[in-house]
Design goal:
Elements lengths: L6 H21 L18 E2 L1 H4 L1 E8 L1 H22 L6 E6 L2 E5 L6 H11 L3 E6 L4 E6 L1 H26 L5 E5 L3 E7 L4 H9 L4 E5 L6 H5 L7 E9 L5 E9 L4 E2 L3 E8 L7 E7 L1 H13 L5 E5 L2 E4 L11 E5 L4 H13 L6 E9 L1 H54 L3 E2 L1 H30 L4 H33 L3 H32 L10
Parallel strand pairs: 1-19, 10-16
Antiparallel strand pairs: 2-8, 2-18, 3-4, 4-6, 5-6, 7-8, 9-12, 9-15, 10-11, 13-14, 14-17, 15-16
Length: 531
């Protein structure tokens, strides 16, 4: 006790000062004064959905649509394989969500075709339909499960990218089960726009207009094989909107997965209308130039989520890999469209299963009640410790306050989001931290009653209580780690608060108070202790 290395008080001082520096930005709500140096910490602890209001959405990813798209993509793949192996076929079409029918010209090609397809397409099972002279290629159950898992992961990343570009701070986006995604957007003031941004599939396709097809017959329900009937929107000079039908070739000549950038801009030449400029990668630019070069005089439709935005006539070959999407956009719609195109298309449509809004009033109530509980808990604990343990109790109180500073500083460093369970964890830590000091102080009192002198009683008290404190902290820490590993959302937030607080408690309740006592009693021989 009498020999105190200099590094110990310096470490306590450094940890306290650094914690204070990291806490100040959160105390000021991120509005730092002009004199605050730029190299000082500026991270703040963000408030969660339950503290500042916002919106919580539960989406379901339509995995069956992703499986259907995978099967659709198989058609082009089979066509390439057959062409490469010089094998003919009579028909090739998707007949079910996960099955493609390949009709052969003659049964004699059966063995060679089976051999080639089995080698090139291992994720599909082959069934010979003798009566149709055709193969049925069906996705294996394992591959369908893999498609579902990848689709869910890709949807989460795409949504995260869109939300980040939209400007929502500290969103929570996580998977639930095998096909659901939970999204929490704190502080959002325009939930309708956010839902439109998140839920849009954003599948961009370029399709050729079937100029020779009979549009009237298609409107009557007789769509030619290989074609598809889609609609666009026409706005006249009076602003009246009408549906414009288009008869398009079903085959997509170029898809939006070749985009590298999308930016909203204003057309200065035509009524200052917003539009979205898109840029292709090298391969996409080459293909776009080739397509426009081969299709001069024809119309190419720009289709987004099965809606035709425009179908301009190609006047000349377009090099440079750039095109623009025009329509009756507002500036916000053009901006949001650029965001979803930059973030990429969702692998499958998503549908809202649950929508829950937390209003600002409820958020303010939560803040007020949470802070009231925290301050009341702190006040009662501090009063008890100061009254019951006197001078040592005041030391414990300082340690508790520093413990809270360390906790808030750590949350700010890792950019954590504070929720009501997090506040509950902080209040719980007050009790844990004080309980450690109570163990120490009771041991010291016990040693004093046994007749030891004050300095020896302090040493024995800390040494004997240390093992008990370590045991209790480790068991609680294990519980918190389990909560973090298997919990989600607010439960994880509670676990993070608990883990950080337990480590801080060991530092403040044991190390810091002992160093403080050593500094106070240095070069003194007290006959009694204020405990």
């Amino acid at each position: 006790m009498r020999q105190l290395p200099l590094w110990k008080p310096l470490l306590v001082l450094a940890v306290t000062l650094i914690s204070l520096l990291y806490c100040i930005p959160s105390m000021l709500g991120g509005k730092m004064p002009s004199w605050w140096p730029g190299w000082f910490p500026s991270q703040i602890v963000h408030r969660g959905l339950d503290l500042q209001g916002g919106i919580a959405l539960l989406y379901r990813v339509e995995i069956e649509k992703a499986v259907e798209q995978t099967t659709e993509n198989l058609i082009d793949e089979i066509r390439v394989v057959l062409r490469t192996e010089h094998l003919g076929h009579r028909s090739l079409q998707r007949i079910a969500m996960d099955t493609v029918e390949l009709g052969l010209g003659t049964p004699a090609d059966q063995d060679k075709t089976r051999q080639v397809l089995a080698k090139q397409l291992p994720n599909f099972s082959l069934t010979w339909m003798a009566e149709k002279t055709a193969f049925h290629l069906t996705l294996t159950p394992e591959y369908k499960k893999e498609v579902g898992r990848l689709s869910l992961d890709q949807a989460i990343e795409t949504i995260r990218s869109r939300v980040d570009q939209f400007g929502v701070t500290e969103p929570t986006i996580q998977k639930q089960g095998e096909d659901r995604i939970m999204i929490q957007l704190p502080g959002l003031d325009d939930p309708g726009r956010a839902k439109g941004l998140i839920g849009r599939t954003a599948r961009l396709e370029f399709k050729m207009v079937d100029e020779k097809g009979d549009l009237d017959a298609a409107l009557a329900g007789r769509v030619p094989p290989g074609d598809i009937l889609l609609y666009g929107e026409h706005v006249d000079r009076k602003g009246l909107k009408t549906k414009q039908p288009y008869l398009l070739k079903r085959r997509t000549v170029l898809a939006g997965d070749r985009l590298t950038d999308a930016r909203a801009s204003i057309d200065q030449n035509q009524y200052n209308e917003p539009y979205v400029m898109i840029t292709f990668d090298r391969q996409g630019a080459r293909k776009f130039g080739q397509l426009t070069g081969e299709s001069v005089g024809q119309r190419m439709a720009i289709v987004l989520d099965n809606k035709v935005y425009s179908a301009p006539v190609i006047r000349e070959k377009i090099d440079g890999g750039r095109a623009h999407i025009s329509g009756s956009f507002t500036p916000e719609e053009a901006h949001d469209l650029a965001i979803v195109l930059r973030a990429g298309a969702l692998p499958a449509p998503i549908t809202i299963l649950e929508e829950r809004s937390v209003g600002p009033t409820l958020g303010n109530d939560s803040i007020r009640q949470g802070l009231a509980a925290t301050w009341l808990g702190c006040a009662l604990v501090l009063l008890f410790m100061g009254f019951y343990y006197k001078g040592f109790g005041m030391l414990a109180n300082i340690a508790v306050i520093v413990n809270l500073f360390i906790l808030m500083a750590a949350l700010a460093m890792i950019q954590a989001t504070l929720t009501m369970p997090g506040i509950a964890g902080a209040v719980l830590l007050l009790g844990i931290s004080v309980d450690a000091n109570v163990l120490i102080f009771e041991r010291i009192r016990e040693e004093l009653r046994l007749g030891k002198n004050p300095m020896a009683a302090i040493d024995y008290g800390y040494d004997r209580a240390f093992i008990t404190i370590i045991d209790s902290h480790i068991t609680t820490l294990v519980t918190a780690l389990v909560l973090y590993q298997f919990g989600t959302g607010a439960v994880r937030g509670f676990a993070v608060t608990l883990i950080i607080g337990l480590v801080a408690s060991m530092f403040t309740a044991v190390f810091m108070t002992r160093v403080s006592v050593a500094l106070i009693l240095k070069n003194r021989r007290p006959k009694t202790l204020s405990i």
